[in-house]
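Summary for the steering committee. One of the milestones for this cycle was to obtain a three-dimensional model of the protein with S-adenosylmethionine bound, which we needed before selecting residues for the alanine scan. The sequence and ligand used are listed below.
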Amino acid sequence: MDADRLKQAVQAQFGASAAAYVASAVHAQRDDLRRMLELAAPRGDERVLDIATGGGHTALAFAPHVREVIATDLTPLMLEAAERFITGQGIANVYFQQADAEALPFPAEHFDIVTCRVAAHHFADVPQFAREAARVLRPDGVLVLDDTIAPTETELDIFINSIETERDPTHVRDYTETEWLRFCTEAGLVVQHSETGTKQLPFVDWCRRARVELATEADLNRRLREATPAAKAAVAITTVDEQVTAFALHSLVLVARKPAQRR
Ligand SMILES: C[S@@+](CC[C@H](N)C(=O)[O-])C[C@H]1O[C@@H](n2cnc3c(N)ncnc32)[C@H](O)[C@@H]1O
């Protein structure tokens, strides 16, 4: 899919699922958000840019700890849903603006912290996103990235990415940790911390949030159950009566700092 068609498909896909992403327990769950906050270590006076804010869970987690958060997303309906969700909780320091992660409408060196959680695997051009994040960060500012990743084994990488794309055609790629380190470094950022883990996903909820057809849900269920032992172990599939009930995707949280200017 070319970049323009992908972006139209993203707006259609997420526009139609906006309420489901706001309500999503997986996206609201606090463990990785707590970790992002811990690693960003805000002092309270930061200006934060949250890229691809989706239902707004990252913006909401950061808002009480910083001066302001600019929550951005490519999908206007998603942004509206996030705004209702966040302002509905009495939070007044989050501002909302439509923005493409690959062409950010902000001046250089404008933000202290840039966050992007569980979204970059939908971007057409991740190196360009990394360059844009680096551009809008002030010297010494940090990008805190959280995304699903592929395991290092090629066979598992192909399997997981094909499962993800079957469930949501706007999925571009879960990159490996090594690829992420390279994207950041090539954008001029210095990776200071990188950690991997897994994220448990209730299977039916994961399918329905993306509004998959029942036939696709059945096919994904079959493919997960019939996966090779290595793939089954990698995604920790649990089944009850021939139905996949949950599985796990691999995830990455990294912190990359823009070097301070030499005097
Ligand atoms: C799963 S949601 C993000 C979840 C959210 N960050 C959180 O913490 O819960 C993915 C979001 O990426 C957005 N998106 C996809 N491509 C984008 C792009 N090129 N620029 C900005 N946002 C994009 C979609 O509109 C969607 O809202």
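Key point for the committee: The chain has twelve helices and eight strands.
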